[in-house]
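fyi for ur records
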Amino acid sequence: MSRPSQQSMTGSSHAGTRGALASAVPAPIGLRRRISEYYELCKPRVVMLIVFTAIVGMFLAVPGMPPLDKLALGTLGIGLLAAAAAAVNQLIDRGIDARMARTCGRPLVTGALSVTESIVFTCAIGLAGFVVLYAWVNPLTAWLTLATLIGYAGVYTMYLKRATPQNIVIGGAAGAAPPVLGWIAVTGTLDPHSLILFLIIFTWTPPHFWALAIERHKEYANAGIPMLPVTHGLEYTRLQVLLYTLLLLAVSSLPYVFGMSGVLYLVGALALGAVFLYYAVRLKWAPRPGLAMRTFGFSIVYLMGIFMLLFVDHYLR
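which gave:
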C-alpha cells in the first residue's frame, strides 16, 4: 500500500483545523433569527391589539366602508409608530426587564440585539410611520400618534412607571388612544363618539394590568417598580380591580346610551362584563394561585370582544 503524499497529509491537517475552528466559533445569527428578534422588540402581541382597536375605530367612523387608502395606510402608520413606542419601552426598561422572569428573555436583555441596532431600527420604523401618516393620511393623525408614542415611551416608561402606583391609571391614556387615532385617520376630525372608545380602554387598563401585577408582584418589588400591589398590598389591589371592573361595566354601556350602537352590542357587552366581574369578584373574595393570570387573560378577550361587538353591531343595524 502506498504512503499518502506530504501535500495530502497537510491538506487533511488544514481541513481538520478549519473544522475544529468552525465548531469552536459560534455561527452568526441567521437572517430569520435576526428578523425574529426585531419582531419581538416591537412587542407584537401588544401592537396587534392596538392596531385591532384602531382598525375598528376606522370602520366605526363612517356609515359604510372606510376609504381603502386611509384604512391601509392608517393601519400601517399607526402600527409602525406603536411598534416604535414598544421598542423604546424595551430600550429604557432593559435593566428592569433583566430582573423579571416575564421579560428576561427579551432581545436587549439576552444580547441578541445591541442598543445601537435597536435605536437605529426604532428610529427607522418610527420615522417611516410618521411620514406615512403625515403624507398619505392626514397631519392630525400623524401628530397625535407621535404624541401617543411620546406619552407611552417617554412620560409613562421614563417617569410614571417609576414614580407612582397610579402609573397605569395615568399612563393608560396613551394605550387608550388607538381607536381615536383610527377614527381621525378616516375622517380627519375628532368626534365625541371616538372619545367613548377611548374611555372604554382607559377604564379597562387598570383592572387588566393590575391583575397581571398581582400575579407578578414579587418581580415588580424585586425590580423596584412601585406597582399598586407592591405599595398598597394584594388585598387593596384586588379591591381596585373589582371597583374598576364595575366602573367598566357602566362605561361599556355608553355606546348604546349615546346611540352609537344597538341592542346587539349592549347585550354582548353586558355578558362580557358579567364574566369579567365574576373573575374580579373571585379574585377579591376567593383568590387562589393562577386566578390573577386567568383574569388578566380574560381581560384581553374582553377588550377584543367589546370591539368586535361594536364592529358587527355597526354593520347590522
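The chain has a mean pLDDT of 91. thats all i got for now
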